[in-house]
Amino acid sequence: MRASELRAILRGRDFRRLYGTRLTSQLTDGVFQVALAGYVFFSPERQTTAGKAAAAFAVTLLPYSALGPFAGVLIDRWRRRRILIWTPVVRALLTVLVAALVAAGQDGAVFFVTVLVVLGVNRFFLAALSAALPHVVRREHLVTANAFAVTSGTVIAFAGAGLGYLMRRVFGPHDDGTALILLGAAALWVAAALVAALLPRGLLGPHLDRAAPHTREALGNVLHGLADGARHMVANGPAALALAAISVHRFLYGIVLIMTLLLCRNHFTTDPGRGHGRVRGHAGRVGRRVLRRRADHAAGGAPRRQGRVDHPAAGGGGAALLALGLPFAQGPWVVGAFLLGVVSQGVKLCVDTTLQESIEDAYRGRVFAVYDMLFNAAFAAAAAVAATWLPADGVSHATLITVVAAYLVAAAAFRAGAVRLSRVPTTT
Q1: N or C: which end of the chain has fewer CB atoms below 10 A?
Q2: Could you give the CA distance from residue 103 to residue 180 in angstroms, rounded to a whole number?
Q3: Who's near 172: CB < 8 A, 6+ residues apart?
């Protein structure tokens, strides 16, 4: 990223306004998600159960899985400036409702459905930001502008999480304190809408004077495209094996994560406030290590052999979790979870590379859309299934042994499948 090019981009008034809209909204995302996590998982007023954890993951992941393929169709038919203004306003109003539910101690179906909508409409907001960028930046600056905006948006979301944690320390971990954090988030979303309103009318498109397919036809094309991509994926041996691998892994990984949340909240400590602090500290350290490991892995080059799904690492990660997790002690469990997290990143990199290599370019977008849906849906399904039998404190020797056994069996099965595919002549 050249400094001179970045300076030229930042001199654009409309880019700065669009960029300010992104930063304000993504800062608020971090605040909202910390408030949500604190209320669902670490509130002193309530016992965190596997069912509530599963519901939280569902409302966090499923909107992106279900709405992602369709967002672009609607973004190309609605005025993007209006989306950037009204989406934060809708989120602010719904967040006020969530704050009222929190203050009343409600965490039932209405609460989760409202949170689902708050998170789901963000898909349209982010898609509109991406679609609007070419209207405020010169074509030759698009790569730099996009990299700068997306990267700093991620950083500001982490900053928002830190702000939310600070607000939690100021207002307290109880329901009233969480409600105040949510009201602050609502105010920030209104600020994002006000920044977007500074953008000139008609600047961001789309230009609907050109003939375009009807929305119903376009939505139907998305469904047909997903089905076509799924058929192509199933017919492609390496891709099918890779998608099966990531689905099984995400399902098992989701069960382990639900166990981890319950252990941190209800087993490792009896003080929810201390549990929140400890989890935050461990999560920060583990997250930094995983990111460094992922960066090193990417820098060294992802696996280039089709059909490889990192089966030895997956089996080793499961075995490490068995050895370190069975005592259900905080220190060993965190180390085991960290190792499994590293394995998770390795498996995903292998699957990404396999799909990039083995799928024809004409089908790649549709296959990756199916991949995205499977990636999140398997995780949410694991949370829902685990909720039916995990105890409130997360301690279940039978579950841990079953998960590890499933990892080992899956690793052996995928190894056998990869060997079989390697003997099949490649046709292009």
Answers
A1: C
A2: 9
A3: none
Neighbours of 417 (CB within 10 A): 20
Structure tokens at 72: 């672009």
**What does the angle CA 352 – CA 356 – CA 361 come to, to the nearest 5 degrees?**
145
The answer as to whether 428 is a domain residue is no
CB 205 within 8 Å of CB 82: no
Dist. CA 254–CA 266, nearest whole Å: 18
Cα atoms in the Cβ-side hemisphere of radius 13 Å centred on 154: 5
Helix, strand or coil, per DSSP, at residue 404:
helix
Structure tokens at 38: 């604190």
Q: Which CATH number do you get for residue 281? A: 1.20.1250.20
Cis amide linkage into residue 312, ω under 30° from 0: no
Q: Among residues 179, 212, 245, which one ends one of the domains?
A: 212
Domain span at residue 103 reads 3-212
| Coil, strand or helix at 387 | coil
Total domain count for the chain? Answer: 2
**Tens of pLDDT, residues 47-67:** 556 676 666 777 767 666 666
Closest CA to 160 of 20, 31, 287: 31
Residue 419 CA, chain-centre distance (Å), reads 32
Cβ contacts of 206 within 8 Å, gap of 6 or more: 75, 76, 77, 79, 80, 131
Three-state DSSP string of 128-197? HHHHHHHHCCCHHHHHHHHHHHHHHHHHHHHHHHHHHHHHHHHHCCCHHHHHHHHHHHHHHHHHHHHHHC
247 and 345 inside one domain = yes
- Number of Cβ within a 10 Å radius of residue 37: 21
79 within some domain? yes
pLDDT tens for 308-366 read 444 555 666 667 777 777 888 888 888 888 888 777 777 777 777 777 677 776 666 56
Given a contact cutoff of 8 angstroms between Cβ atoms, the answer to whether 291 and 340 are in contact is no
- Rounded to two decimals, the pTM is 0.64
How many Å apart are CA 275 and CA 279, to the nearest integer? 6
Q: If we measure between CA atoms, which residue out of 415, 414, 410, 408 comes closest to residue 322?
A: 408
Q: What DSSP character marks residue 85? A: H
